Amino acid sequence: MGKAARAIIIEGDNFLVMHRKKYGDEYFTLVGGRIDEGETAEQALSREVKEETGLIVTDLRFVYYEQHPAPYNEQYIYLCSVAPHGPVKVQDNSEEAMLNSYDMNIHQPEWISTKHFANLPFRTPQLHEALMKAFKKGFPTEPVRL
After folding, report:
1. Burial 23-61 (b: 16+ CB within 10 A, else e)
2. Beta strands in 12-99 (DSSP E)
3. Which residue, 49, 56, 60, 58, is CA-closest to 17?
4. Which helix (DSSP H) or strand (DSSP E) does residue 144 occupy?
5. What is the CA radius of gyration of the chain?
6. Closest CA to 114 of 12, 42, 25
């Protein structure tokens, strides 16, 4: 059973998502990915955010746990703060950059307005709903199982 860590990164009215095009399927998801052997969820999250966006996580808080279909059956989702930065982009030495080079499994980080999030084809409906609610009422203070 695989595990993954995902980041909720918000700046002002903008929210960072990963725009994916995978084997003809186009959708949006959170930045993040696989927790490697010997890594904590927090370590994996910091590594994945850096690889996928170039951003450095400075603070994080566990807010959601989600059961998910394979390959990542457990998703640990964190509300994150990041260091001041320039534009976001997949880093050249990352797995995502290698996959992008084959032009069949595209990863593109994008800032979107929280107001437009409801209309995106987001990967998991229960997380999509939880995020829309949190954008209006705030994020939970204790982790919530979705």
Report:
1. eeeeebbbbbbbbeeebebeebbbbbbebbbbbebeebe
2. 14-22, 25-29, 31-34, 57-67, 72-82
3. 49
4. strand 144-145
5. 14
6. 12
Q: How distant, in Å, are the alpha carbons of 39, 56, 130 from that of 127?
A: 24, 24, 5
Residue with tokens 């990967």: 123
Span 74-116, pLDDT tens digits: 999 999 999 999 999 999 888 887 877 877 688 899 999 998 9
Q: 33 near 20, Cβ under 8 Å? A: no
Q: How far apart are CA 75 and CA 32, in angstroms?
A: 10
Ramachandran region, residue 132 (left: φ > 0; alpha: ψ -120 to 50; beta: rest): alpha
The C-alpha angle 66, 110, 3, rounded to 5 degrees, equals: 25
- pLDDT (tens digit, 9 = 90+) per residue, 66-83? 987 776 689 999 999 999
Cα dist. 51→74, 92, 96, 120 in Å? 21, 8, 8, 24
